[in-house]
Amino acid sequence: MTGRERTAKALAIGLASGVVIAGGFVAVFDDPVLGASSGLTFGVVIAALLADRWEER
Questions:
Q1: 3-state class of 31 per DSSP?
Q2: Which residue, among 1, 47, 38, has the nearest Cα to 19 in the 3D structure?
Q3: Cα–Cα distance, 11 to 40 (Å, whole number)
Q4: What number of other Cβ atoms are within 10 A of residue 36's Cβ?
Q5: How buried is 35 (Cβ within 10 angstroms: 0-12 exposed, 13-18 middle, 19+ buried)?
Q6: Are the C-beta atoms of 6 and 47 separated by less than 8 Å?
Q7: What is the pLDDT confidence band of residue 21, given thresholds at 50, 70 and 90?
């Protein structure tokens, strides 16, 4: 897998996870701004962690 493929895969998984997290925050706290910011933050963190892990292999 090339570097671009790893990055694209990590971003796709991270952002999809972020959307799920955002939906959970909106459902629980009924605050779309909190959901969007939390989902984006966690999505980027998940993507960065995945990309870093795959880079080490």
A1: coil
A2: 38
A3: 11
A4: 15
A5: buried
A6: no
A7: very high
The pTM (predicted TM-score) of the whole model is: 0.79
CB distance 38 to 25 below 8 Å: yes
The amino acid occupying position 41 is T
What angle separates helix 32-56 from helix 3-29, to the nearest 10 degrees?
150
pLDDT interval class at 56 (50, 70, 90): low
Q: Alpha-carbon distance 20 to 1, whole Å? A: 27
Q: Give residue for tokens 């897998």.
A: 1
Asked if residue 55 lies in contact with residue 45, where contact means CB atoms within 8 angstroms, the answer is no
